[in-house]
Amino acid sequence: KTTTYLMAAARAARASAAHEEALVHLENALSLWEEQENPHIADLTEQKASTLMSLRRWDEAAADYRKAIALYKNAGAPVKAAKASTWLALLYGWKYDVAAFFRTSDEALELVPSSEPELRQRLLSMRASSLSLLGDIEGALKIRAELKIGDDIWTVHFHVHSMQFPLAVQIAQRVARTCREAGDWWTAADAGAHTSWIAYCGQPAEAAKDIAGLLLQAEKIGHFDAALLCKWNSAMVAAANGDLQRAAREPLTAQTASELESRHLRPTAYTWVREPCSPFRDTRNSLEFVSGGTRRCRNHSRPPSASYRQFPRITRGDSVRKIASWKVRATC
User: For a tag on the chain, would you pick the N or C end, based on fewer CB atoms within 10 A?
Assistant: First the structure.
């Protein structure tokens, strides 16, 4: 009964964005089961990992996800192990650790039993999105052609990576609504942040109307990437309104800059100082700068500016197939 109470208290605390309080509840619950074999331990450990992720304590979260996965395997719970592996893969993806991401997602796919075809499809959708992020649009299209599920958050990501912003926004709106109704606030924040790409569709005023609320939602649950995307697109809105100084300043608050540094994304921070102005100023000079930013990314798995080198072509409305033919590859 005590464990059940503490787990409920932790969920309530997280719902109120009191992540530190939730962590205390979970650690207290785990202390009740020290050196004992109990199915609660794996669930508590996974919840702790999720809470640590909201607190942006990435390494600790990864360690607890790995522990939870091992406990689920030992308990004969492959589906739970696969789902925890999915979150661990995402964490590696957010840290731009490509090798760890693909290794962990492969392990998740191996764990999924034949009785869970939808989970396997979701994992494949995530893999397709990851390939498109790396510039392998054709590889992503091949995987997506075999999928038999409806639109999900990875469909949104794929369309963003392939520069199909109007379609990405439409799907993101549906996914965000569905996730909110299901109580999946993490994915809802992710999808909601991607609706702000409407700023790229000639509707900066529409983006400005919602972006503050979307940012607040993302920060409340500790979704760093969704919050960062909101800040980035807020900069695009400022640039569209002619406020180029704010556009250059918006993404790089002190907190954002320090977190980019802690996640080894300094080239992203450096590039974003200038990129928001690229569609509204001298595109040629912006592209020269972005190419320089690419060279500065030699120690990173993906140049953050790779897709933005294609801005002149994007604005002409080229199709996803044509974009794939440009072969924007992660060669740094």
Answer: N
In tens, the pLDDT along 289-320 reads: 334 433 433 333 344 334 444 433 433 344 44
Tokens (6 digits) for 119:
């989970």
- Higher-confidence residue: 287 or 53? 53
Identify the helix (H) or strand (E) that includes residue 86. Answer: helix 78-94
pTM: predicted TM-score of the whole model, two decimal places: 0.71
State the residue for tokens 């500790």: 222
> What is the DSSP code (8-state) at residue 95?
T
Q: Which two tokens stand for residue 120?
A: 């396997």
pLDDT band (50, 70, 90) for residue 250 = low
CA 60 distance to own-chain centroid: 18
Residue with tokens 């109120």: 16
The string of DSSP codes covering 177-243 is HHHHHHT-HHHHHHHHHHGGGGGGGT-HHHHHHHHHHHHHHHHHHT-HHHHHHHHHHHHHHHHHTT-
Q: How far is CA 176 from CA 54, 153, 229, 302, 311, in A?
A: 19, 8, 15, 27, 27
Q: Where are the alpha helices (DSSP H) in the chain?
A: 2-15, 19-31, 39-54, 58-74, 78-94, 98-111, 117-133, 137-145, 153-161, 165-182, 185-194, 204-221, 224-240, 244-249, 254-262, 266-272, 283-295, 311-314, 320-325
